[in-house]
From TrEMBL:
It is a multi-pass membrane protein. The keyword Hydrolase does not apply. It comes from the Eukaryota. Residues 237-303 form the Mechanosensitive ion channel MscS domain. GO terms for biological process: transmembrane transport. This is Mechanosensitive ion channel MscS domain-containing protein. It comes from Ceratopteris richardii.
Length: 417
């Protein structure tokens, strides 16, 4: 076949030629094709006429160019075939694994298996290999300043992304399976998923940095005044991050719980690695640093089987003769109330707590079944109203200065009351 396009002005650059077996096979194929096909076409016919001028001239100017061209076509065809068969290969691995284990799996088993998770990452790995190989071959033809080391770095970068992609997909399938098996532990699994995601991002980023020559170990080892300054500046961030990790692991509360501490109170809307978002009773959001949460005593009302209700009525001293009757009736009221929990906590009780010049302190105490904050408020309202009706119907009167004191379990008035 004759060359009609001029390539004399283009410098000679060797084409990558290191696949000996493929070279011999490609050379034999190109020779046989040339011998059998060439007589069928005119003498000036050029089968590579469709290739751009510069690449066309380069191929014709390099020895064994036809063999190299055929070789790359063979490699591309094999890679394309493998790319198209990745799905069937993964399904075969899945069925072969089940056959060895003598297990009959449901039809949806493959969709939730590790073999399905590796489909797309395998395709990505094949694509990265083929693109970098093609770049290695055609780079000299287009006079691209690409060294073999640069191509290998790009290939390694692509492999790291493919492997990280597979690990994330596999992690997602495992998380989905664990949550389906134990729905109650979902918050713990989600927290573990976040921690693993951060760890995987760190490992992938470190590997990419090492591939491109950035030694993260040397960066982390920087000392002196600058290291101390960075350490002090990041103290709060690191503290909040570690506290967030502990919150995810120990799980003193989860999203949706109603919690109370010295500096905050409300429903937990979100738990982050640095801050947690609390929605107060008036729907005002508050971002609380995780390190502050770990340093406080937290009461989680959502996990309680029941909530303690304590109240003190201050009666007049002259009503002392009516106290016994009032206490018995209120105790009977608490014992028969549908929202009072008789199984958990202390038994319902009403008794004379103390006597003083200010009046008689009559205290009632019971446990309310836990059905949420608003249900607790409603039950408390109903119990206190009926207790007050018992006091007044018995002929007693409240002390006008301080009629009722509401107490929580620790003796302080809770803000939600």
């Amino acid at each position: 076949m004759q060359l009609k396009k001029d390539g004399n002005n283009l410098p000679s650059v060797p084409i990558e030629d290191d696949d000996h077996f493929l070279d011999d096979l490609s050379h034999w194929i190109s020779k046989k094709v040339s011998e059998n096909v060439r007589p069928l076409f005119p003498e000036d016919f050029d089968i590579l006429n469709w290739i751009p001028d510069k690449l066309h001239s380069r191929i014709h100017s390099v020895e064994r160019a036809a063999a190299v061209f055929v070789r790359e076509c063979l490699v591309l065809a094999v890679v394309a075939l493998l790319f198209a068969r990745v799905g069937k290969f993964c399904r075969w691995l899945s069925s072969h694994s089940n056959a060895q284990n003598n297990k009959k799996q449901p039809e949806t088993y493959y969709e939730d298996s590790v073999y399905h998770a590796m489909e797309d990452p395998l395709r990505a790995g094949l694509l990265v290999w083929q693109l970098t190989r093609s770049l290695k071959i055609i780079g000299p033809l287009f006079k691209l300043n690409l060294t073999p080391l640069m191509v290998e770095k790009v290939r390694s970068f692509g492999y790291i992304i493919s492997i990280t992609w597979f690990l994330f997909k596999w992690k997602g399938l495992i998380l989905k399976h664990l949550i389906s098996e134990n729905e109650e532990e979902k918050p713990r699994f989600v927290a573990l998923d976040k921690i693993l995601s951060l760890l995987m991002y760190y490992v992938a980023g470190t590997c990419m940095g090492e591939v491109f020559g950035y030694a993260f170990r040397s960066v982390l080892a920087i000392g002196g005044i600058s290291g101390i300054a960075v350490g002090f500046a990041s103290k709060e961030i690191v503290g909040n991050f570690l506290a967030g990790a502990l919150l995810f692991i120990t799980r003193p509360f989860v999203i949706g719980d109603y919690v109370k501490a010295k500096s905050f109170e409300g429903h937990v809307q979100d738990i982050g690695f640095l801050y947690s978002k609390i929605i107060g009773f008036d729907q005002s959001p508050a971002r609380v640093p995780n390190s502050s949460i770990m340093n406080e005593i937290i009461v989680n009302y959502s996990r309680a089987k029941c909530r303690q209700l304590s109240a003190v009525f201050l009666l007049r001293n002259e009503d002392i003769v009516l106290v016994d009757k009032i206490a018995n009736e209120i105790t009977d009221l608490l014992s028969k109330h549908e929202r009072v929990d008789l199984k958990n906590g202390r038994p319902p009780l009403c008794y004379l707590k103390s006597m003083s010049p200010e009046g008689l302190e009559l205290e009632l105490s019971c446990c309310i079944k836990h059905k949420g904050l608003f249900a607790f408020q409603k039950a408390k309202h109903d119990i206190l109203i009926k207790a007050a009706q018992i006091v007044t119907s018995s002929g007693a009167c409240f002390e006008s200065n301080v009629p009722v004191l509401l107490l929580s379990g620790n003796g302080k008035s809770p803000s939600e009351t």
